[in-house]
Structures are given as structure tokens and as C-alpha cells.
Design goal:
The protein has ten helices and twelve strands. The strands form two sheets. Strands 1, 2, 3, 4, 5, 6, 7, 8, 9 and 12 form a ten-stranded mixed β-sheet that branches. Strands 10-11 form a two-stranded antiparallel sheet. α6 runs parallel beside α7 and α8 crosses α9. It starts with a helix and ends with a strand. The protein has about 400 residues and is an alpha+beta fold. Among the domains are: about 120 residues, no CATH class; about 120 residues, 60s Ribosomal Protein L30, Chain: A, CATH 3.30.1330; about 35 residues, no CATH class.
Length: about 400
């Protein structure tokens, strides 16, 4: 026992010496700091001569936050639980809406007596995998509507979407092939002639007003109906109207001394009359062209001494214009060919995850918390003097 007591004394003495050395070292350290500035003193007390060791920043996904923008608001009555991942998923407009809402909620908690405090939880919500872009657009629309409410001082109630974290769009192309039997088209050359029953000009006449209008107009009406038939077969048919003109051997006026010149004038005037008449009938002229054909002088020779009138039918029968309508028409034949039709359909999908905000307001009305249906009943107990006093028996949960 004596040995044990001696050992305890030795240990105690060693402890006292160590403590004395520590105090001395601390005193010496303080003595060394006298006369230094605050920054110099801080540097001297920092291990390894003031070298700070870098602490890796926590991963934003796992850091609970709240983000610096919310901390800077200095909220007292509003408790915000917002992960940095959720905050990073919001765009600038959405963040501004949240900050506006938090400031307004803090003001309400301070000014409204029934509103004790509020808890706002902002977190990542439902994930959407490989959904159509329309689904993502719908979620973005919900977020925009809720942010608009918060900016207007009307915060949305319940667990609401306030943002969408979108993934990269994925484009999928689906190609399908279909064999269709298509009729083979062929080109057909069509031609029709329209001849007057008799003369369309008197001798030496050539102007449109000199034509025997009834006969010429009848020819133009017949030609117009045939052109309509061609265009019904092929709206892109190339149609040509040729005005064929002739003259007799009766002596021509001085301005048409050259044989055939009178027929040429008749043909040119026939074209002008045809254009005006077709326009009045509504005949499209995009694929319609006009040409002339000069037959020159025809019929018996003119003999002024023979005593035969120049208006005799033997001469006037060769004083005319006739019409010819020709068309190049593409029509379907009875034969068919196989045509492969390839269709490519593009589908765009993407991954997305919504950002949710839940607001939990704590109201107090007497001893009743309206949000969680919990209240504190009061139990009375008689005192020795016969009076009653209240006693708190704890909290009871309402159904």
C-alpha cells in the first residue's frame, strides 16, 4: 500500500509538471504575440505558418443548402429547406419569383398575428424518363403559372411545380417503306379542226370588224369547249390554237399587193379576236399558245373581163379563217408500276425532373395549431384555499 501511494504521488507530480509546462508555453506564446496586429497574430496561431488547407466543396446534389441568395435575405420567421440541386435547376426568372415570395411571406409572418411562422421546402420532385417533349412543355407551363402567381403576391397552395430540370433531347427516327401501284402516264397528241361552212370574209376585207362574226364566233366557241376537255384530262396540257387563213385570187387592195399578205393579215386579226373571246369565256391561257398558218391565194384566177363578180362564191369560198386546236396531254394508261414510298417519322423525347415547392404555414389560435390539428388541453386542480388553477397535461393529437 505504501508503494501504491508513492506511485500515485509520482504520477500526480508528473501531471503537475506537464500542466506547468503547458501554462508556461501558452504564456510564452502570448508574450510572443504582443505588439503584433490582429492579422499577424492570426497567421502566427495558424498551423504551418498560416497556410490554410483547402476543404473540398460538398457536391451540390447532396448539399442541403439553403443557397446563398436565400441566406442573404436574413429571414427570421420563414424556415427554408432548399437543396442546391433544386436551386440550380431553376432559371433566373424562377429564382427571382421564389425570392419575391419568401420576402412577402416573411412580411406576413411579422405583420399577421394569426400567422406564427412558415416553412418552405424546395426540392426535386417527380422524374420523367424518355417522355414526349409535350409533357415537358406542360410542366414548364405549370411552373410559369406558379411563378407568375408568386410574383403577383398570390403564392400557390400545396406542393406545386416551380421549375423543370430538363435533360438533353433524344431524337429517334422511324423509317417505313410502302409499295404502291401507280398508273403509268403516257403522252398523247390530240388535234381537232374547226372549219367554217362558208366564207368568213368578203373580198379584200381582213379586219376583225370585217369578219362575218356569226361564223367566226361559232368556231371560237367550239374550240373553247375542246380546250376545256384537254385541260380536264391534264391541267398542265400544252394547248396550241392555230388560226389558218386564206385569200382568193381577186385583186387585193394596194397595201396587200404581195400575194398572201392579205391572208396573213386575216390570220393575225383572227388571233386577236380569239384571245379576247377566250378571256371573256374564262379559258386559262397559262399553257395556251397561238400561232398562224398562211395558205396564201387559192381558187380560180380572177378575170375582170369575164364579167363575174368578185363576191361570187367561187372566189369568196377561199376568203376565210379556220381554227385548229392541238394539245399534248399526259394521261394515265391501264398499265401500272410499283413505286416504293419511304416515310421517315421523327420522335423527340427527353428526360426531365420537376422542382417542387411546399409551403407549410403555422397558425395559432389560442392553443390550437390549425395546420397539424394538435392542441394543448388545460387541466384544472383545486388549491388548498378552494380556488382552481390551470395545469398543463401535455399535447394531445387530434384525429
Amino acid at each position: 500500500m505504501a508503494f501504491a501511494m508513492q506511485e500515485r504521488k509520482t504520477t500526480s507530480a508528473a501531471t503537475n509538471v506537464a500542466q506547468t509546462n503547458n501554462v508556461t508555453a501558452a504564456t510564452d506564446k502570448k508574450a510572443q504575440l504582443r505588439g503584433l496586429t490582429f492579422d499577424e497574430g492570426t497567421k502566427a496561431l495558424t498551423p504551418e505558418g498560416g497556410k490554410q488547407t483547402d476543404t473540398p466543396k460538398p457536391d451540390a446534389k447532396n448539399d442541403k443548402g439553403p443557397p446563398p441568395e436565400i441566406v442573404a435575405l436574413g429571414l427570421k420567421k420563414v424556415n427554408v429547406d432548399c437543396t442546391l440541386e433544386a436551386w440550380a435547376a431553376l432559371n433566373e426568372t424562377e429564382r427571382a419569383g421564389v425570392l419575391t415570395f419568401l420576402v412577402e411571406k416573411e412580411r406576413q409572418c411579422l405583420e399577421q398575428k394569426k400567422l406564427k411562422r412558415s416553412k418552405v421546402t424546395i426540392s426535386m420532385g417527380k422524374k420523367f424518363e424518355s417522355v414526349d417533349e409535350k409533357v415537358v412543355d406542360e410542366q414548364n407551363k405549370k411552373a410559369q403559372d406558379n411563378i407568375a402567381l408568386m410574383n403577383a403576391g398570390k403564392p400557390p397552395m400545396g406542393d406545386k411545380t416551380i421549375g423543370v430540370k430538363e435533360g438533353e433531347p433524344q431524337v429517334t427516327e422511324t423509317t417505313t417503306e410502302k409499295i404502291t401501284k401507280v398508273p403509268i402516264t403516257e403522252t398523247k397528241q390530240m388535234k381537232d379542226h374547226f372549219d367554217a361552212a362558208g366564207s368568213t370574209f368578203d373580198s379584200a376585207d381582213y379586219k376583225p370588224e370585217d369578219m362575218q362574226q356569226g361564223g367566226v364566233i361559232a368556231l371560237l366557241d367550239q374550240a373553247a369547249e375542246k380546250i376545256k376537255e384537254y385541260l380536264a384530262l391534264d391541267p398542265n396540257a400544252k394547248v396550241t390554237l392555230t388560226v389558218i387563213a386564206s385569200e382568193s385570187h381577186v385583186t387585193n387592195p394596194d397595201q396587200f399587193k404581195e400575194p398572201g399578205s392579205l391572208a396573213a393579215a386575216r390570220a393575225a386579226n383572227g388571233v386577236e379576236l380569239a384571245k379576247a373571246h377566250f378571256a371573256a369565256l374564262g379559258i386559262p391561257t397559262d399553257n395556251l399558245s397561238f400561232t398562224t398558218q398562211n395558205l396564201g391565194a387559192n381558187g380560180p384566177k380572177w378575170d375582170p373581163k369575164a364579167g363575174i363578180s368578185k363576191h361570187d362564191p367561187m372566189y369568196t369560198a377561199h376568203q376565210f379563217v379556220r381554227l385548229e386546236v392541238a394539245a399534248e396531254v399526259e394521261v394515265e394508261s391501264d398499265a401500272t408500276e410499283d413505286v416504293k414510298q419511304t416515310t421517315t417519322e421523327e420522335t423527340r423525347t427527353q428526360d426531365a425532373q420537376v422542382v417542387k415547392m411546399l409551403v407549410d404555414d403555422k397558425h395559432r389560435l389560442g392553443g390550437l395549431h390549425l395546420n397539424n390539428k394538435t392542441f394543448t388541453p388545460k387541466k384544472t386542480k383545486k388549491s388548498r384555499s378552494g380556488r382552481t388553477r390551470k395545469r398543463n397535461w401535455g399535447s394531445v393529437s387530434c384525429p
